[in-house]
Amino acid sequence: MADNPGTIEHKVTFCRICEPLCGMIATVEDGTLTALRPDRDHPLSAGFACQKGIAFTEVVNDPDRVTVPMRRTADGFESVSWEEALDDIATRLTAVMRERGPGAIGWYMGNPGAFSYAHVLSIMAFIKGIGRGSHFFTASSQDTNCRLMASQLLYGTPISVPIPDLTRTDLLVVVGANPVVSHGSFLTAPRIKDRMHDIVKRGGRVVVIDPRKTETAAQFEWMGIVPDTDALLLLSLVQVMFAEGLAHTHAIDSLVDGLDWLRAQVAPFTPEATAPRTGVDPELARGLARDLAATPRAAVYGRLGTCVGRYGTLTSYLLDVVNLVAGNLDTPGGSVISGLGVPGQRMVNIGMGALLRRTYRRKRSRIGGFRAIIGSEPAALMAKEMQTPGPRQITAMFISAGNPVLSVPNGDELEAALDSLDLSVALDFYLTETTSHCDYVLPVTTMYERDDFPLTFQPFQATPFRQATEAVIAPVGQARQEWQIVGELIGRMSHQSRVFAAITRSGKALRRIGRPFTPRMLADGIIRLAAGGDGFGLRHCGFTFERLSRDHAHGAVITPHLKTGVLKEAISYLRGRIQLQHDDIAAEIAMVSTLSGPGQAFPLRMIGMREARSENSWMHNAPLLMRGDRGHHGLMNENDAAELDIRDGSAVRVSSPYGSITVPVTLTKDIMPGVIAVPHGWGHKGTGGWKLANEAGGANVNRLTSSEPADVESLSGMAWLTGVPVRVERA
Ligand SMILES: Nc1nc2c(c(=O)[nH]1)N[C@H]1C(S)=C(S)[C@@H](COP(=O)(O)OP(=O)(O)OC[C@H]3O[C@@H](n4cnc5c(=O)[nH]c(N)nc54)[C@H](O)[C@@H]3O)O[C@H]1N2
Ligand SMILES: Nc1nc2c(c(=O)[nH]1)N[C@H]1C(S)=C(S)[C@@H](COP(=O)(O)OP(=O)(O)OC[C@H]3O[C@@H](n4cnc5c(=O)[nH]c(N)nc54)[C@H](O)[C@@H]3O)O[C@H]1N2
Ligand code: SF4
Ligand SMILES: [Mo]
């Protein structure tokens, strides 16, 4: 990076805080990032960026940022050299491996990890190299694993996930998502709010099913629902379609196995039968089922609110089933599984799916016996995996890009567990509630200090699109990229595993012929093989990593619309048909049908709430985002509050069977009675770390959620974060 003194440069790049990946122009003065503004020439975000994206300059230049390796001592952290830190970590890790085996080692990768291809790929290599029995956790068990599991059941592979064809649909039903605030998830669609308004402009509708009249629901049509009852409503929608002869049976008969089984399963769930529990008027439910089946271009889209209840896999499965039975799967304006467009996609899916299904069957968590989704275990059980003695007890733990003390159920338990480890290492740029418990905090680069290609999000783009970027500034201080840190450890431990030895050998061989050995080779390979790529020379002018970042800096649209009629390619089962019938699904349906309302002791239900100026737990130290009297507060129905003699703005004590917190509440009509919404990611106390965040106060809502195996969703290991029974009292 040539950063000549006195120069001001404007570099084209993109934001990687959340999923739309908005185009950005970075102003770099003398090698320092001084401003970020939205890129008007980005084909999709076209001059839009949100407050978080703009405020990221303050994260890069944050005086509280960790920019040198830190080691924990009896009285706080001290800086150490990279050599000293890496040597000591490798030595201690080797000792753990020798004495206790790979099963004593664990890694948790948090949400921002998914935005860096190199981070993901290097950890996968590391875990593989540590060997069988090691533990791998990600934020996905608080987020997406049930969605992946539903896909594994239906299509045979967790990686075939349908998205709504946003740009062509005429009826979009949004279930448990708040895209006006979240900017879309499992759906990469810059300016998503505008795209939803386009639907209305072309004469269509957007219906939002949510316990709260959210910022999204307020702009479109709101249908209130009792938390954690979506599965019942969706069963009713399918029941109506079958009972009223609206099901597109003829069209889908050749696509699926188990249609009669499904019909029998849903038969008891008439809208009248489920209404007392969902709170949805039976006529409204019937109307919605009819509209979905009759509108040629309609799609149901579910997100976090449908994943973090107790029936996440069933709910995700039913979302697809509604689309399928209504004739809206794999159709223009419907719900579409769009792959990367690599040659032999079906064969790739058959192979990958078989492998992942086998891992699912074979790998079980030590605590609770949960199966592994894409090789990952339930993070809700991480603390118990550290504290329960026996073979495979975790005694050495790595945490990259995560703040599980705030993001995982029962943060208190996790804090204690982290303190009990023989070795704990964080890869982060802040001293947080989590990292401040670690023996080492290794400083990493922010997104603007690394090259990138958003590999994870490619199949979820509403408009197929490619963009890659180079780093816009050099690493701040001594920060290093995650893959470089992992690489250093692998190099130091090459005698400990065959995988590490092979990686080290390949690295040396490549360097000898003058080629750098980096994960970029893999990302480049995928770009070249995928739609729009150069096919390794077969397609003249096709994309490579370098051509994308150099010649298409603002990004390139590949096709204006999603490809449809491609369902078969997405299916991993050899029969090439969707499998509807599963004993596990039947068992979940039986369970949800006995679902009871809240009891006397905990009469309310708690849900989550995302905020425009937060990103989970990690942007509360940016002054731009903390202006005004910004603080943590819950949201409560004003009638519920009146009964409890609670006034607007007053502090309340919220208690669940698992813990309690105190938080001020705002009163509103715009939430279902019996429901309280509390944002997560607050309650900062990163010792010696982010000062502004610590001063902001608030409480860790995950002191109210459960880390008991019985409360973890059985099929996919999802944490239970919504519909949690609580009691609210004046504080
Ligand atoms: N500004 C901002 N943007 C973000 C984030 C952030 O923290 N701040 N986080 C990012 C991350 S990590 C993610 S995963 C995405 C999430 O993206 P979204 O899923 O779009 O965002 P949420 O706000 O979590 O939306 C969940 C909605 O489900 C509702 N809900 C809760 N329980 C239920 C239920 O039982 N049934 C139904 N039908 N609805 C329910 C909630 O009221 C809420 O409106 O957002 C991303 N974007
Ligand atoms: N009650 C409740 N709990 C929830 C949720 C909820 O809705 N309700 N949402 C859940 C969801 S969807 C998610 S995704 C999780 C998120 O949970 P986590 O991923 O565990 O936590 P984050 O708050 O996203 O913390 C991200 C950390 O990564 C660091 N970081 C940022 N960028 C980088 C980077 O490039 N590299 C590295 N190494 N570090 C970086 C930040 O400093 C921060 O410490 O929370 C979950 N928890
Ligand atoms: S919406 Fe997300 S990707 Fe876009 S600027 Fe904001 S934080 Fe960045
Ligand atoms: Mo998430």
UniProtKB/TrEMBL annotation:
InterPro entries to which the protein is assigned, alphabetical: Asp_de-COase-like_dom_sf, MoPterin_dinucl-bd_dom, Mopterin_OxRdtase, Mopterin_OxRdtase_4Fe-4S_dom, Prok_Mopterin_Oxidored
Record's keyword terms, sorted: Iron, Iron-sulfur, Metal-binding, Oxidoreductase
Annotated EC: 1.7.99.4
The keyword NADP is annotated on this UniProt entry: no
Pfam family, one: Molybdop_Fe4S4
Gene3D superfamilies named among the record's database cross-references: 2.40.40.20, 3.40.50.740, ADC-like domains (2.20.25.90), Dimethylsulfoxide Reductase, domain 2 (3.40.228.10)
Source species, domain of life: Bacteria
One GO molecular-function entry: iron-sulfur cluster binding
EC top class named in words: oxidoreductase
SMART domains in UniProt: Molybdop_Fe4S4
Domain annotation 4Fe-4S Mo/W bis-MGD-type: ranges: 8-64
Recorded family membership: Belongs to the prokaryotic molybdopterin-containing oxidoreductase family.
Protein known as: Molydopterin dinucleotide-binding region
Source organism per UniProt: Mycolicibacterium aurum (Mycobacterium aurum)
Gene from which this protein is expressed: narB_1
